[in-house]
Each structure stands twice: as C-alpha cells, then as structure tokens.
Q: What sequence folds into this?
C-alpha cells in the first residue's frame, strides 16, 4: 500500500470550494445573497446600537463577466450604523466564523460570520478583487477606506489599499462588491421582491435603492420605534446531546450541581429538582444536587441528563 499524506484545509478553503452551500448556487443567487448578507448586517448593526436604520442600495451592470453568460455586477450597500473599527474590518469581511453574534443565546439575522465573507470570496474568485469598504465610527475624525480580501489558505482577512478619507457621514459603513452574476429584478426570487419584503417587515427602516434600468426609489420609514433587542437566554438540556451537556459543565468549574443547572440553563430550578427527586426511577436525591459538578462521573451525568429530559 502506498503512503498517502493526510492534509487539512481551512474553513475559508472549504467554503471557497463549496459556496453553493451558503447561497452562491447560481449567478442570480449570487447577486441576491450578496445583497441580503450586506443588508442583514446593516440592520443588525443599527438595531444593536438603537439607531433607526437608513440603508442605501445600488446595483448596476458593468458589462460582460468572465464566466460564460454572466454579467459583471456591482452591489453597494451603505448604512448609518455605528461603523466598524478599522482593525475589525478584515475579520468582518474576510474571515469565516468570525462574528460578535455567535453563541450569544438570542436571535439575530446573522449568527455564524459566514455570509458576508462568502460574498468577498465570490468577488475575489470571479473578478480577482475583494470587498471595498468605507467605515467611520463616532470616535474617528475621518473614515477608513480599504479593500478586504480573504486569505483562503489561512482563513484570515487581509486589508489592502488602506487610507483615511473625508466622508460626509457622522458614522456608518459602506461595502461594495464587484463580481460575476446575473441580475433578476422581478419574480419571487427577484431583487425587487426582496427589497420590498425587507421594507415591509422592518417598518422602522428608510430604504433607498437603485436597480439596473430603473429610477431611484425611496421607501420612508413608517415607524420610529426601534425593535427591542431580545434578552439572551441560556440553553435548555432539551437542545443538547449528552456530550454537550457534560462539556457545558466544564465551563463552571467547582460549583454545586444545583448552582450549575440554575445558572447555566433556562427554566431549571428547585421545583424541577424536587420532581426529579420524587421519581424513584431516576435514583437521584437532594444530596446529589449538593455535590460539586466536577466530581460527577459520566454515568452520573447520563443519569441526570435523562432525568432532566
């Protein structure tokens, strides 16, 4: 038998070869996915900082693309959000699985930090250029302009052509992608349907958009109430497997079982523990819940896990 070396790949390398898994399954989907990811990020950023979002979208055809039957498309999305620190731009637009929203226990539009980096990768692969970003925070006197690319081998964002510029915005972010795709304006999967639907379900949004061969359109907000940010919630054992349940306990160190369950999970308290102790089939008593969690064996964890289910 011949020897074969076992190789590994980075997250970025995997997704660069499987972009269809994250919304880039066709040229028309590439345009819609890029737009959606940028708009979702803008809405999340504004709501996180209790800002009434105002988003500007521009989509235009620049000519023929390098892929057969494709067009070169420019997608630009600008928001009035809090802006992004210059040092964080490579992580946001050029690194997979880099997200401030991951694992926080509450619902947001984007959680995993994949979509916008995938858009950068698609632009880089089809037009050999990454995302062009302008960003300004309240703490910055001038805006930062840069091109962000994905280091696919190492899953790292790379910042190029960085410069400070004057920008007539107090704060916000503008991102622009140029890539190969095809524009579908109308229809169920069309850009217009997505933009109108986004405006409808976000009545606090003012949306400006310009689509190919159409006039500029502005949809004014009809509400000035920023949606309340939901509180983060701890998980419940129903959502876990046994291995996850045991690993979760390792985050809390030397604490009592009862304290770990109350603090680390939602809707677990003394009433639940009393019910478990009353059920003789589980074989657990009140003394068990007073033990330190780091003293439990895997068999005892499994017994507790089954009781809570």
A:
């Amino acid at each position: 038998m011949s020897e074969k070396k076992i190789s590994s790949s980075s997250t970025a390398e995997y997704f660069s070869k499987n972009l269809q898994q994250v919304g880039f399954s066709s040229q028309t989907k590439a345009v819609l996915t890029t737009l959606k990811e940028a708009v979702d990020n803008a809405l999340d950023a504004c709501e996180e900082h209790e800002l009434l979002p105002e988003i500007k979208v521009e989509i235009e055809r620049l000519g023929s693309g390098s892929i057969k039957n494709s067009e070169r498309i420019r997608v630009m999305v600008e928001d009035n959000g809090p802006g992004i620190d210059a040092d964080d731009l490579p992580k946001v637009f050029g690194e997979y699985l880099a997200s401030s929203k991951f694992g926080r226990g509450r619902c947001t539009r984007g959680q995993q930090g994949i979509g916008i980096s995938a858009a950068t990768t698609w632009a880089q692969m089809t037009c050999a250029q990454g995302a062009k970003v302008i960003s300004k925070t309240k703490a910055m006197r001038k805006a930062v302009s840069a091109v962000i690319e994905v280091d696919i081998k190492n899953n790292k964002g790379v910042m190029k052509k960085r410069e400070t510029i004057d920008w007539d915005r107090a704060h916000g972010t503008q991102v622009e992608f140029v890539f190969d795709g095809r524009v579908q304006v109308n229809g169920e999967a069309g850009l217009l349907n997505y933009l109108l639907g986004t405006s409808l379900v976000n009545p606090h949004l003012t949306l400006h958009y310009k689509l190919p061969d159409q006039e500029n359109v502005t949809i004014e907000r009809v509400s000035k109430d920023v949606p309340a940010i939901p509180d983060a919630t701890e998980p419940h054992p129903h959502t876990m497997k046994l291995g996850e349940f045991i690993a979760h306990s390792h985050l809390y160190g030397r604490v009592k079982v009862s304290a770990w369950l109350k603090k680390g999970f939602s809707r677990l308290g003394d009433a639940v523990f009393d019910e478990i102790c009353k059920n003789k089939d589980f074989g657990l008593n009140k003394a068990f819940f007073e033990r330190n969690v780091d003293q439990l064996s895997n068999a005892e964890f499994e017994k507790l896990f089954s009781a809570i289910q």
Observations:
- The longest strand covers residues 54-64.
